[in-house]
């Protein structure tokens, strides 16, 4: 019985926690978002536009000068903690 419990706790310890990264959005001001590496950036883009009162179709989001798509994730773009997404209106 004790062996079963210790095996169960070992299995829990082996599971890797989901990585959460900080992503900065820059439009003259910096806005910080916490997002999981595998999450589509659409959520972040929509939330940003909502807070700014902007239409998402009128805003461009760039990483390293390249436009990003809502279906891409930080993992797809090889982004790291603290990377910045530029916002052009």
UniProtKB/TrEMBL annotation:
Segments for region (Disordered): 1-22, 67-89
Record InterPro entries: Rad60/SUMO-like_dom (IPR022617), Ubiquitin-like_dom (IPR000626), Ubiquitin-like_domsf (IPR029071)
One Pfam family named in its UniProt record: Rad60-SLD
Domain Ubiquitin-like: 41-89
Regions of compositional bias (Acidic residues) in chain numbering: 75-89
Gene3D superfamilies the UniProt entry points to: Phosphatidylinositol 3-kinase Catalytic Subunit, Chain A, domain 1
Matches recorded under PANTHER family: SMALL UBIQUITIN-RELATED MODIFIER
Name by which UniProt lists this protein: Ubiquitin-like protein pmt3/smt3
């Amino acid at each position: 019985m004790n062996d079963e419990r210790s095996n169960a706790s070992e299995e829990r310890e082996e599971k890797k926690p989901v990585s959460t990264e900080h992503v900065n959005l820059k439009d003259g001001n910096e806005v910080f978002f916490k997002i999981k590496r595998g999450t589509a950036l659409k959520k972040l883009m929509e939330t940003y536009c909502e807070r700014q009162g902007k239409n998402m179709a009128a805003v461009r989001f760039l990483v390293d000068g390249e436009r990003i798509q809502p279906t891409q994730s930080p993992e797809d773009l090889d982004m790291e903690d603290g990377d910045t997404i530029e916002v052009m209106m």
